[in-house]
Amino acid sequence: MMSLAPNIARCGSDHRPQVLVKLRHLISLLILVWGFTFLGNITMAQNVSGTWAISIHGGAGTSPGNFSDEANAARHAAMQAALDIGQKILVDGGTSLDAVEAVIRFLEDEPQFNAGKGAVFNAQGRHELDASIMDGRDKSGGAVAGVTIVKNPISLARLVMTETRHVLLTGDGAEEFARSLHIDLVDNTYFDTPSTLKRWDEFLEGQKKDGGKDNEQAALMLDTGSYFGTVGCVALDSSGNLAAGTSTGGMTNKKFGRVGDSPILGAGTYADNESCAVSCTGIGEEFIRNSVAFDVSARMKYQGASVEQAVTDILENQLRPGDGGIIAVDKNGRVFMGFNTGGMARAMADSTGKSEVIWVEEK
Length: 363
Ligand code: ASP
Hints:
Elements lengths: L3 H9 L5 H30 L5 E9 L7 H23 L4 H14 L19 E7 L4 E8 L5 H11 L4 E3 H11 L12 H16 L7 H8 L6 E6 L5 E7 L20 E3 L4 E7 L1 H6 L2 H12 L3 H12 L5 E7 L4 E5 L3 E8 L4 E4 L5
Parallel strand pairs: 3-4
Antiparallel strand pairs: 1-5, 1-11, 2-3, 2-6, 5-6, 7-8, 8-9, 9-10, 11-12
The protein binds aspartic acid.
Aspartic acid binds next to strand 8.
């Protein structure tokens, strides 16, 4: 009380004219506004760098030799078209999230890939689709698993992120949510293609020869050289924001209800503006066990590894040969696409003018 009294007294004894006080307030306000504008401009200048980059995968596995020339040409053309879609969004100043969703939506509609139309058959002869998307700005994310009638699971995943307080919705609940949004729904047979049916038949044949055992997908893949076909996209936009997404039908003949890594943030998909954006493809169980997508980011963030070192070390030392592939872009726009299978359909472009589509060539 003793120390407050003099202050109160001083305030009370201020008899300066009101106009001067008002002038002082006005000047303070102007200085404040100028300060905010100045700081705002600095922030804008830091973010709007003009640097952007995008990378896409169309699944790991092997090998183009297993497919007809027509099928290989169609897959290459689809990867190029997807890259063009994503690149245009980024060149026009669009967001990495929009680029990732648009690219994956396009590939989900392309029957050559194991995502959306073209998703593989599960053990019941049906399709269950998984997808996720993640925003590196605030690590918000959305995912759906085991959906059977949603034409574009990646868009539903984004709506889980933006329209709910959850991260992952599964099965019936995810579909009820989809119905409430009036997004495109299809019959489960919409996802059928002759080549996925053939692959499922071959799988069942192989199983019969193997005495009906639920033989491990990896062994099957290495033996028959089959191709996974999951799709994923990572992007950095010119505002410095990273995003990642992945979409899949999973693994041929998977058990009803099986969920892989693709809809699991940290396993198949991850994005953090402080490090990188990651999308994985391969044997999902291994990617979940090793938290692969998060591990790429963690190695960069905590160990100072480059995107190339992080991805390569995981592929060589954490995962088993033949497990799959990883695409990642770091916060500076450096892209790395690695795999420990015979090949991986992949593409990238960036603001330095680099642009390439590589459809499963042998390493
Ligand atoms: N990772 C996916 C899964 O396990 C499959 C794939 O990438 O092809 O469901």
